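Rather than argue in generalities, we have chosen a single entry, letters for residues, whole numbers for local backbone shapes, without further comment.
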Amino acid sequence: MDGQTADKIINATHYPRMAAAAALSVLALFLLVGTFKVLKEYRYVGSGVTATNTITVSGDGEVFAVPDTASFSVTVQEEAKEVRDAQDVATKKSNDIIAYLKSQDINEKDIQTTDYSVYPQYDYIQKACTGGYCPGGEQVLRGFQVSQTLTVKVRDTKKAGDLLSGVGSRGASSVSGLSFTIDDQDALEAEARAKAITKARAKADELAGQLGVRIVRIVGFSENGNYPVYYAKAEMSLQADGRGGAPAPSPEIPTGQNKITSNVSVTYEIR
């Protein structure tokens, strides 16, 4: 076989192979785009499902649980003619409070500074009136106020009362915002949701029986969760100098119960 004949044979087989490969590439691209479109359409329960006969029912579920975590805010405020003097006193008191909290097994990660501010403080001086004329007053700088607020997370709720009293006797100007929460409520939310879905299904079965139809499948689902926190409040206002004398008696702080709720809406296809 001469060289010219071999080239003809190669060319005769080469171009069909190229055409087949191109066709396969186009087909693969078409399938990929189609698959992506289908996945996109079915991201949500019921998306892309066309059902002409449906019923929609709702259900709610509630779960009650005793809170296992408390949190509160403690603020130290100091005023002095010079910023540094106010900062020195405020810093000492804040550090004393932090050291006390750590001594009560409060983890460092559960003590967070949520505000630190320095503001000038003014007195308004009214000038004396003369001859029936009263000139306007003027602001006179009195000094500076330094404020630091700590937010404390308490993982043993039984200690809440003692801690409120303890920080008060160590220079806190105010203690506020006590609240009780559940540290990990995912399982409780799931339990409330399951109760809501069970109620919705019971309603759907009852309605289907009354209508003389049967339930085929779920074609739509939505949930609105409402997780209110019921908490006890305790607020302590202390002397401006932070000295309350002997430690105040520890208040009794009932934790109560928190309610976790779930509200669902389910759409069923019927026949």
Notes: The chain is about 35% helix and 35% strand. The longest helix spans residues 3-41. Helices lie at 3-41, 83-103, 160-168, 186-211. Residues 106 and 154 are 7 Å apart (CA to CA).
